[in-house]
Specification:
The complex is a heterotrimer of chains A (107), B (512) and C (106).
Chain A (H helix, E strand, L loop, with lengths): L1 H22 L2 H6 L8 H52 L5 H8 L3
Helix pairs in contact in A: 1-3
Chain B lengths: L4 H30 L2 H8 L18 H9 L4 E5 L8 E7 L2 E7 L14 H12 L7 H23 L16 H15 L1 H14 L1 H4 L2 H7 L3 H9 L17 H11 L5 E7 L7 E6 L11 E5 L5 E4 L5 H14 L5 H36 L3 H29 L5 E2 L2 E2 H22 L4 H24 L3 H6 L4 H25 L1 H9 L1
Antiparallel strand pairs in B: 1-2, 1-4, 2-3, 4-5, 5-6, 6-7, 8-9
Helix pairs in contact in B: 1-4, 1-5, 1-13, 1-14, 2-4, 5-7, 6-13, 7-12, 13-14, 14-15, 14-16, 16-18
Chain C lengths: L1 H44 L4 H25 L3 H26 L3
The chains are: A mainly alpha (107), B alpha+beta (512), C mainly alpha (106).
Amino acid sequence: MPDAMLLLGVFAAAYLGFAALAMSQDRHWHHVGGARHCPRRACVVLRCAGWALLIVALVLALMRDGAGFGSLLWATVITVGALSVVATLSWRAHWLRPAARLLQHLG
Amino acid sequence: MEQGFRASMNWLHTWAGVVLGGLLFAIFWMGTLAVFDREIDRWMAPMIRLPAVEKPFSLESLRPLYETAAAAKSPFFSVGLPTDRDAAIRVLWRDQSGQMHRFIDPNTGAVLADPGTLAGTRFIFPFHYMLHIRAENIGYWLVGLAAMAMMALCVSGVIIHRKIFTDFFTFRPDRKPRRLVLDLHNVTGVLGWPFHFLITLSGLVIFWSTYFPSTWQLTYNGDRLAFFADAYGNVVPKGRSGEPGGMASFDAMAAEARRVWDGSALRYVFVRNPGDAKSIMQIGRLDEGIVSSTYDAAYFDGPSGALISYKSGTAPVMSVQRFLAGFHFIQFRHWSLRWIYFGLGLAGCVLIATGYLFWLESRRKKHAQLGLKGVRLVEGLAVGSVTGMLIATAAFFVVNRLLPLGAEAFGQDRAALEVWTFYLVWLATFAHAWVRPQRAWMEQCWTVAALACAAVLLNWITTGDHLLRSLSYRHLWPIAGMDILLLAGAAIAAVSALRLSRPSRVAQVRHA
Amino acid sequence: MQRTLQRAGARKAIPIIVRLVAAIGGGYAVSAGLAALAARVLPVTTAMPPREAIVLSSMLAFLVYLGLLIWGFAEPSLVRLCLILAVVGIVSWGGALGLVRLASGG
């Protein structure tokens, strides 16, 4: 069971990390319901959170499978996570709307 | 040929893609399928849909088969031991009629009926790395050339992609087809870049001694055996003695091998010169828990059963090569990674196909204006290489379920008939694309969908392992997986065909 | 008109063919030569055993070939491309074969 949880954790961290990085870009910020430009504060928070989450994904992967498999798992899962974010932005952009609305207030 | 770095990289990317796109798609497609080659074996050879072994298997029960191989003067006798993915034992040797391949039930020791198919491990997997063109290693060299081109495509692709970070997550499915195809090409290419590049490089590194022989040939004077003996610790008998020799206890030698490796599991048993006084048994180590593909082997003198030497541990540079090889072969036990590789492999196929499609679409008007004769040929090649390859694969699976065991025709055995079907159907798809250029893509998508559904249905009819049944037994999960993927593929093909049949799309095609 | 076009086409094709041969064929020959040289030089200059040097040189050769391919198509001057490939090829192969001759007591 812990294996499955950790795997889910790696994917979730990768997905959320890339979602944050995507939203920090003007085009996608606007696409998920924000203003034309991503406000500076929100952009900084998103970028930091994004990279941090990608590192969390790496740590979880190493914890689950050790150095060899762990690094392989991370490197491949982040691609899967990034592709999932692309799919979300293309077809289910409204999933990310609450996050955008929340961060908008940071201004 | 134009001026400017970016322009020259654009030229390289375009022409390498156009000329080698079809070959690259075939290699990537077969490679993606080969991720599940043993599972495909199980689907195509129903007699090996066996549950995992309960009790340890005694290798002595293989002695009758060994004696058969020895009597036939086979140069080798090979045994593939069961693993997590493979319950059955695979035995291989050669006699006058060619290669003899048999499966053994590990629970009973019984020799199973000849499945009469090359399936995943002997057709799909070798197609991937040598295209089944054995003459002068031409197949290997073509794949090598394609792989170098792939790396050049990856590098040039990044160079010509102007807004690589701005467009990192950009995919606009609501736009015009050409924009959609380019977006998809960029997304799969950029996000999957590390995987595509490394899987290509690692594939080449596996065959380094074939592709860059200058390094070892100069030092070892072209003596390949001497080099392998030095680098991999291979122990090979120097020719046959011509005198008959017995073979000591298989189990004793296997036990000794396990002992020197602290109880590690075994992967294979390989006897050179079976039945000869100069026979050598090579036992390979199995380590499904590491990424690296281990070369560890123990060598025994056949008649006496004495341990000659064994290999444990690898030198630093060789370890890197083994890691890269293991990264590519994925013979380790890690199911999540296996599925991820499959998904990323499909992304690679999408990358190559969309690249090809984008080029066709963006040149369509210009080509129509110029009235170039070669355009129809290139379009035909594109369709045949992409959807045609998918149709040929599906036909391979369908004919496997249709042919009865032991079938023979035109002097070809059952396995050869399946292969003939693959190539003839593939050829037919090129012909179809040539004859009906406007509707080729759409019609071939429908054909893929139909054949994939037929395969699932035929599996049910001929083996009784329908989805509900295969999902309920652990040893049948690979069958369920294959059926589910076939149905998913059929669905995607059908949706693509529907999108392609929309009037606006057909009008656009007819315009050209 | 047709014949002028055909001649122009041929004139455009020759530099492209030369570049393809130089970049793909020449690039391969040079990478193989550099790998052969490295495989002989590394055991002498470092403590690396020959069989390790062989594997390392061969693995790096793929990346060297990739670099030569990119440069082969990016280099604007065809003459410079062929010249440099020829010189490096001769030096590396000559060096490698020379070292082999030396080692075997030539």
